[in-house]
């Protein structure tokens, strides 16, 4: 069990307060100060809280940290933030925030290596390596597709309960955008598995797992199947005329593509024990989902009322009093 979760349960603190207490050095595990919130502790461990102990460090950070270790750092990337700088050399990126956090946390020159990336408008779990052996270990896992990755996606229309896309992808399918390879065109093999979690007004919330990790894989596969990710300003715009009357044409405000990297898992580079991190759904995603649920309920009430109107009323039969 994660240390911050154990502290939260034992001391009845919020998860955030528990995490801050750990980082401040106010938590002891079996008599030894522990300051890594993501550290695994056995359920039998004795946890002690020293609220009046001076804080070991005070780190102000713009990062939402999901799991922390000497070898890696898993963070929750917000939508709208680049994972790493582009050719424009942006200063505020997830990598820059990670390096800033590590510098203030440990007071020395920070080191963080990029293992993988998420699109700018995709939120969720992303891991950085803190040393080269871990970098090579994680890169090998990604190369062999041995990483557990689970996404949540809100897509247009009603998709089947479960299924898989295995269409090859090409880097340029027109207009400098990626796409599914046409017959006779050689592409890169890609497999995306999904299952429907919930059906809401004009859309489906799907749980998506990747067997491969191609650029824009989820977005391209679902768009090619006629179910683009809601809010996708790139792939969702293609063939929009043929989808007239779909959800987004009904004035629903969607701030960005509704794609969230919920879960990330891999064996620990040193111990081999399972490491899993889960990023909660961000507020903008929840807001869109709740609005669609309200629309679903309203539509259900409307259909029920119309059905009731169509049902003919049958006048009650009247019986005369009769004597036996």
User: Which architecture of the largest domain would the CATH scheme give at its second level?
Assistant: 2-Layer Sandwich
Q: SS-based structural class? A: alpha+beta
The biggest sheet amounts to: 10 strands, mixed
Task: Give the averaged pLDDT, no decimals.
Answer: 86
Low-confidence stretches at least 5 residues in length (pLDDT < 50)? none
In N-to-C order, the SSE pattern is: HHEEEEEHEEHEEEEEEHEEH
What's the CATH H-level homologous superfamily of the largest domain? Pseudouridine synthase
Distance between the termini: 80 Å
State the CATH topology of the largest domain.
Pseudouridine synthase
Tell the overall outline. globular
Radius of gyration from CA coordinates: 25 Å
Summed up, the helix count is: 6
Number of strands: 15
Q: What is the domain tally?
A: 2
Helix content: 10-25%
CATH class of the largest domain reads: Alpha Beta
Q: How large is the share of residues in beta strands?
A: 15-25%
Description:
With 324 residues, this protein is an alpha+beta fold. The chain folds into two domains: 1-58, Structural Genomics Hypothetical 15.5 Kd Protein In mrcA-pckA Intergenic Region, Chain A (Roll), CATH 3.10.290.10; 59-307, Pseudouridine synthase (2-Layer Sandwich), CATH 3.30.2350. The chain is built from six helices and 15 strands. The strands form three sheets. Strands 4, 5, 6, 7, 8, 9, 12, 13, 14 and 15 form a ten-stranded mixed beta sheet that branches. The chain has a three-stranded antiparallel beta sheet with strand order 2-1-3. β1 and β2 (32-33) form a beta hairpin. α1 (3-11) crosses α2 (15-23). The longest helix has 28 residues, at 283-310. The protein is globular. The chain starts with a helix and ends in a 14-residue tail after the last helix. The relative contact order is 0.11. The mean pLDDT is 86.
């Amino acid at each position: 069990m994660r240390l911050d979760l154990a502290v939260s349960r034992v001391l009845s603190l919020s998860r955030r307060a528990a995490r801050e207490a750990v980082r401040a050095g106010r938590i002891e595990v079996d008599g030894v100060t522990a300051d890594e919130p993501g550290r695994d502790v056995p359920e039998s461990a004795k946890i002690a809280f020293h609220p009046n102990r001076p804080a070991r460090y005070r780190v102000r950070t713009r990062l939402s940290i999901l799991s922390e270790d000497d070898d890696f750092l898993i963070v929750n990337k917000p939508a709208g933030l680049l994972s790493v700088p582009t050719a424009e050399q942006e200063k505020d990126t997830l990598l820059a925030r990670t390096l800033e956090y590590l510098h203030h946390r440990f007071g020395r020159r920070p080191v963080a290596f990029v293992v993988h990336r998420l699109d700018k408008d995709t939120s969720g779990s992303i891991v950085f390596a803190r040393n080269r052996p871990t970098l090579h270990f994680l890169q090998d896992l990604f190369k062999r597709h041995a990483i557990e990755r689970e996404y949540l996606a809100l897509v247009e229309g009603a998709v089947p309960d479960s299924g898989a896309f295995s269409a090859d992808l090409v880097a340029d399918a027109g207009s400098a955008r990626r796409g599914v390879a046409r017959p006779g065109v050689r592409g890169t093999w890609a497999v995306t598995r999904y299952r429907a979690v919930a059906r809401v007004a004009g859309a489906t919330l799907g749980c998506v797992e990747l067997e491969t990790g191609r650029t824009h894989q989820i977005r391209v596969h679902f768009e090619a199947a006629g179910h683009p990710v809601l809010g996708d300003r790139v792939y969702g715009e293609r063939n929009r005329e043929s989808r007239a009357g779909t959800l987004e044409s009904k004035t629903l405000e969607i701030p960005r593509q509704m794609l969230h990297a919920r879960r990330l898992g891999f064996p620990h580079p040193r111990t081999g024990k399972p490491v899993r991190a889960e990023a909660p759904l961000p507020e903008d995603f929840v807001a869109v989902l709740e609005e669609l649920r309200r629309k679903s309920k309203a539509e259900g009430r409307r259909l029920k009322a119309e059905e009731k109107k169509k049902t003919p009323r049958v006048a009650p039969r009247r019986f005369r009093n009769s004597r036996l």
